[in-house]
Amino acid sequence: MNVTSLDLLPLLSERDPDAPLAWRAGVPVSAREFLADVARLAPQLPEGGPVVNLCGDRYAFALGLAAALVRGQASLLPPDARPDTLARLVEPGGRTYALLDDPELATPGMQRILVEHRPPPGGAGAQPVLAIDAGLHAVSLLTSGSTGAPQPHAKSWKTLVGDVAAAVARLAELLGRPSLAGLTLVATVPVQHSYGLESSALLAMLGGAAFDSGRPFFPADVAQALASVPQPRALVTTPFHLKTLLLSGIALPPVDLILSATAPLSPQLAAQAEQAMGGQLIEIYGSTESGQVATRRPTRSEVWETFGEIRVHAERDATGAERFVFAGDFVPEPTPMADVLELLDDRRFRLLGRANDLIHVAGRRSSLGYLNHHLNSIPGVEDGVFWLPDDVTDGVVRPVAFVVAPTLDAHAIVAALRERLEAVFVPRRVVHVSAFPREGTGKLTARALREFALSQLAPDGTPVQLTHEVPADHPVFAGHFPGQPLLPGALLLSEVLEAAQRVPALAARLGPRPTLAAAKFLAPVRPGSTLRIDLSPETGASRGLRFEVRVGKVVAASGRWTPGAES
Q1: Would you say residue 73 lies in a domain?
Q2: Biggest alpha carbon distance in the chain?
Q3: Which of 274, 419, 426, 464 has its CA 20 to 30 A from that of 192?
C-alpha cells in the first residue's frame, strides 16, 4: 500500500486487489475495478463542491464518495431527496453539485453528475491505492432537527478510518477471525444514514469486507440478496426490519453475523434471529455525532462494552441534569449521548432509555423504551409502542399501548404485561392497529407517534389533522408533467381518503364505499411536498366529512366525502 505519512490515510484497506469489494446483482466487482472507476470519475467532478451524494445503489454511492475524496471535496448525505431538503443544501454563490444514479431524480439548482460502473474491456490494470488527507472534511451527515432543516454533522477522513478500525477489531474478535476479509455485507439500511455508511460501504472499503450494492427492503428481497452472495456473509439491519423478516416465514440463507442498530433489541428477538439464520447477533450503539462506540450480544448479556480506548463518564450539564459523555480513541471530542445509562465502569454500561422518553406515572419512573421492550417481547405482538397522552384520569396520566397483534386480544396483552411491569405502567387501554408510520430505518418519530395516536383515539365528531409526505420519486410525476411535475387531483383525493380511513372513527363514519360529494383544486402539489390534511366531521344527520389540504399556508384542495349507499 506504501502509505506511510501520518497526514495521509488510504482510501482502501490492505486487501487482495482482485477479491470482491462489492457485488452487483450477484456479479463481483474487485477492488482493482473500483479504483479504476474512481480514477475515471474523479476528473469528471466539477471544481468546488460540496457534493450531495444521492446515489441509492451502494456501489455507485461508494464510487461517488471515493471520487469526491480524491478531489478533496466533502460529501453531504441528506436524510431524503425531497426538493425542499435539497434546496437548503445549495450554498448561495457556491458550487454545490449532485451525484446520482437515477437520471429521473430532480436536483433543483444543482449541476448533476450521473455515476455509473463501466467494467473496462479486458479487465482493469494495476491501480495504485490512493491516499487521502487525514484531516479532510470527508462527509457531513445531515439529520432533521426540530425545525425540519437538515443539521450537519461533519466527519474527517481520520475519524471515519478510526471508527471503522475499532469496529473491525471488535467484530473480527467476536467472529473468531483474523480479519473481515471475505465477509460480504447485505444491508437493509440506507447508506446516507450514519449506521448504513459505517456498517456497509465503509466497513468494506476500510475493513476488508465486501458489500452488496442493493438495499433490499421486503423479506423476499432480503432472502434473495443474501442468497446471491457467497458465505461468509452478514446482514446489516434494524430491529424493525429484522422482526418483519422473521415474521414473514420466508426461509433465510444462513449468515455468520447479524448487525443491528437504531433501537435496542429484545433478547427474545435476538435469539429468534440467531436460531433462524445461524449467526451471532451483535448490536451497535452510537449516534450520528459520535459514530458507533459500543457493542453487545443481547443473547449473552445486557451490558454494552465500548470500542477500543473509548471511555464513558457521567457529568452534570449547565442545568444540573445528568448526562453521559463518550470520549477517546477516534471520537474527536467528548460527546454526550441523549440516553440514560447505568455505568458499571468506564467501559461497560446498561442502556436504560432515551433521556427524553423518561416518564413518571403515579410517582414511579420508567422509560418508554423499557416499556416498549417488554411489550414487543410478548409472543404474538408483531410491533408495539407505548404512548403517554396529555389527558389525566383520576389525577394520573395513564399510558396507552398500541399493538400490531392479530392473534392476541387486549386482555391477553394486559395479562402478559402484568407479569413484566409495575402495575402503574400496565396500560388501561390496548389499541390494535394494522401498522405504524415508521421511517425507512424503522424509526418512529415522536411527532409521527403523537399524530398517529391522536388519530387512532379520536372519537366520532372530532376534527383530525394528519400530515403526509409526497414522495419526490413517485412514478406518477414522470407523466404529470415533464419539467413541471405535479400530483394529479385523483391521487390527491385518494391520499385524503386513505388518511381518513386510517382513523377508526372516521372510517366507521364513511363506511366501506364513500362518495366524493365535492372537490376543489386550488394550488398545485409538487414532488416532496408535505401535506397537512384537516378532516372535519359534519354535525347533524349528514354524516359527511369535510377536508382541506394545505401545503405550507396554501390551501391546495378542499371538498367533502359522504357515506356511500349500502350494498
Answers
A1: yes
A2: 82
A3: 274
Cβ contact 222:235 at 8 Å:
yes
Q: What's residue 150's pLDDT? A: 59
For residue 367 the three cell numbers come to 422509560
Provide CB contacts within 8 A for 176, sequence distance 6+. Answer: none
> What residues contact 75, with CB distance under 8 A and at least 6 apart?
50, 51, 52, 53, 64, 65, 68, 69, 99, 138, 139, 140
Reading the block at residue 247, the C-alpha cell is 415474521
**Residues 441, 447, 449, 453, Cα dihedral to 10°:** -160
| Selection from 175, 146, 384, 190 nearest residue 281 by Cα | 175
- How many distinct structural domains can be found in the chain? 4
pTM for this predicted structure: 0.72
Same domain, 333 and 468: no
Q: Is the pLDDT of residue 260 over 90?
A: yes
Q: Which element (helix H / strand E) includes 163? A: helix 157-175
- Say whether both 376 and 490 belong to one domain: no
Counting beta carbons within 10 angstroms of the beta carbon of residue 476, is it exposed (0 to 12), middle (13 to 18) or buried (19 or more)? middle
pLDDT at 552 over 90: no
Query: Per the domain annotation, does 208 fall within a domain?
Result: yes
The amino acid sitting at 384 is G
Structural domain containing residue 477:
458-562
Round to whole Å and give the CA distance between 420 and 253: 34
Do residues 242 and 260 touch, judged by C-beta distance below 8 A?
yes
Q: CATH number of the domain at 90, please.
A: 3.40.50.12780
- Both 295 and 191 in one domain: the answer is yes
> 310: alpha, beta or left, given left = phi > 0 and alpha = psi -120 to 50?
beta
β-strand 291-296 against 304-306: which pairing, if any?
A: antiparallel
Answer with the one of 355, 371, 390 that is the final residue of a domain: 355
Cβ–Cβ under 8 Å, residues 495 and 468: yes
Q: Which residue among 289, 323, 355 closes a domain?
A: 355
Mutual angle of helices 239-247 and 219-227, in 10-degree steps: 90
Place of cell 477516534: 330
Q: How confident is the model at residue 513 (pLDDT cuts 50, 70, 90)?
A: confident
pLDDT of residue 446: 79
